Amino acid sequence: MASAGAVLLEARPFRPFKSSEEYLYAMKEDLAEWLTVLYPELRINADNFLDRLDTGVALCRISYQC
Asked: InterPro entries under this entry (predicted)?
């Protein structure tokens, strides 16, 4: 049984990757989706993932809001 604060994401089928770049992009997509569910104010996606988290400032701001 999931806890009251748990967020369920859509299950996705396993997919093989042709290159490490494809794998990295898929990981950024998944992590960006997860972070968006938790912190929509981050406005993060796979394309801006590293830029948004580059300095850590965005995550520090979120941690002080709690």
From this structure: CH_dom_sf
Q: Are 35 and 29 in contact (CB under 8 A)?
A: no
Say how far apart CA 10 and CA 42 lie, in whole Å.
21
Secondary structure letter of residue 42 according to DSSP = G
Please say if the pLDDT value at position 2 is more than 60.
no
DSSP codes, 15-63: ---SSHHHHHHHHHHHHHHHHHHH-GGG---TTTHHHHHSSSHHHHHHH
**Do 42 and 34 meet the contact criterion of CB atoms below 8 Å apart?**
no
pLDDT digits (tens, 9 = 90+) for 16-65: 888 889 999 999 999 999 999 988 888 999 999 999 999 988 888 777 76
What is d(CA 11, CA 53) in angstroms, rounded to the nearest whole number?
25
